[in-house]
Write a structure and sequence with these properties.
With 363 residues, this protein is an alpha/beta fold. It has helices spanning 11-15, 61-78, 94-104, 150-156, 192-202, 218-225, 237-248, 271-276, 312-320, 327-330, 343-348, 353-362, and strands at residues 5-8, 23-28, 79-89, 107-116, 132-139, 165-168, 208-211, 229-234, 285-287, 295-297, 303-305, 308-310, 332-335, 338-341. The strands form two sheets. Strands 1-8-7-2-3-5-4-6 form an eight-stranded mixed beta sheet, with helices on both faces. A six-stranded antiparallel beta sheet has the order 12-11-10-9-13-14. The relative contact order is 0.12. Residues 350-363 have low confidence and may be disordered.
Length: 363
């Protein structure tokens, strides 16, 4: 399958040519179906730039629903089982899209609120200022190993968990593309900061990203910058041409800067396997972090301390007088005069591959 390309044509027809389960992430910014009946004007009588493009016009609600069902089915077919779908919309369409998305078989992981720092005001004062758009993040199945770079998102957010409300400005300034007459090229051009966050969160370098409604090319531009492969589709020749010109000026980041932060977890090894493998011999004395409360390792993987006899977790909880306690971090082994948590033995110990597999299966 050819990647790093922009295709001019009908999204449904172009997606049919893509092999099944070949795409890692789909970002879809479908027509909003705004159904505007008349021009919007400011208090000074000047026209408001809104979505009045032909691509946003449908005969009726049924026509829009049919269109939505069709493209969602194609996305479901071409998305990998480990892949993600992101859809963005406003109150005009996102609830209809979400309904059909679930009926197609997708499993919703989150809804994300993109809160705009610079939204268009409500000039007539008849409603609240519409200051956000909604994104749906979904996978093909409820239980699947989808990509989510949690640690990267935490680092992105100053070591705090990334929340589901994202404060990002509307695309403006030099980033906003203009046509040959100096007017805004695309009425709903998305900011690169929004796509940057999504791509960093849910893909890895060299993953393949599809945007079936490419528009001004933001998805492809950010994918290229972040070392991901892209496929962009749009039926408007002007949009495709501007997107191609945009991509010519995008420089791919150095691979060394693209690897996501991945927290290394210790192997899932039972304490008894450390004893059986003689990594932690029978009769070894363990201590808490202060070198107090000694406990002896028994043959069955339990600990004995005075008259008490229990597992590493139960014994630690008894000593701390707490309902629960993680024995792997509570208990320490003495090497010379230094105490080390027994957790490091899971990382450094030479446990057989078969033992590790058996432990994982039992969990």
């Amino acid at each position: 399958m050819k990647t790093d390309i922009l295709l001019c044509g009908d999204s449904l027809e172009q997606m049919k040519k893509i092999p099944a389960e070949s795409i890692d992430l789909v970002f879809a910014d479908p027509p909003y179906f705004m159904q505007l009946r008349k021009m919007l004007v400011r208090p000074d009588a000047t026209a408001v730039s809104t979505v009045t493009d032909d691509w946003d016009k449908f005969q009726d609600t049924k026509a829009y629903d049919d269109f939505t069902i069709q493209w969602l089915k194609e996305v479901y077919r071409i998305l990998k089982k480990t892949g993600s779908l992101w859809v963005i919309g406003t109150y005009h369409n996102i609830f209809r899209v979400g309904y059909h998305l679930q009926n197609t078989g997708f499993w919703i992981l989150n809804d994300i609120i993109w809160r705009k720092t610079n939204p268009m005001p409500n000039f007539k004062g008849t409603r609240f200022t519409n200051a956000h758009e909604t994104l749906i993040w979904a996978t093909k199945e409820p239980r699947t190993k989808y990509t989510f770079n949690y640690e990267s998102m935490k680092a992105f957010n100053d070591d705090l968990q990334m929340r589901s409300d994202w404060l990002i400005p509307v695309c403006h300034g030099p980033e906003r593309l203009k046509n040959t007459t100096g007017k805004t090229l695309h009425s709903t051009q998305k900011p690169e900061a929004l796509l940057h966050r999504i791509i960093v969160a849910c893909t890895r370098p060299n993953d393949i990203i599809l945007d079936p409604f490419l528009g001004s090319g933001t998805t492809a531009a950010v994918a290229k910058k972040l070392g991901r492969h892209y496929i962009g589709i749009d039926k408007d020749k002007t949009y495709i041409q501007f997107a191609k010109n945009r991509l010519k000026h995008i420089k791919k980041s150095e691979p060394i800067f693209l690897t996501p932060v991945i927290k290394k977890l210790p192997p899932q090894i039972a304490f008894g396997d450390l004893v059986a493998s003689n990594i932690l011999p029978i009769g070894t004395t363990l201590y808490d972090s202060k070198g107090q409360h000694p406990a002896i390792v028994c043959a069955d993987g339990s600990l004995k301390s005075g008259q008490q006899h229990a597992s590493i977790h139960q014994m630690a909880a008894k000593i701390k007088k707490s309902p629960t306690c993680n024995g792997w971090t509570f208990w320490h082994i003495k090497k010379g005069t230094t105490l080390f948590p027994i957790d490091i033995l899971r990382e450094n110990g030479k446990i057989s591959t078969e033992t590790q597999k058996r432990t994982r299966r039992q969990k």
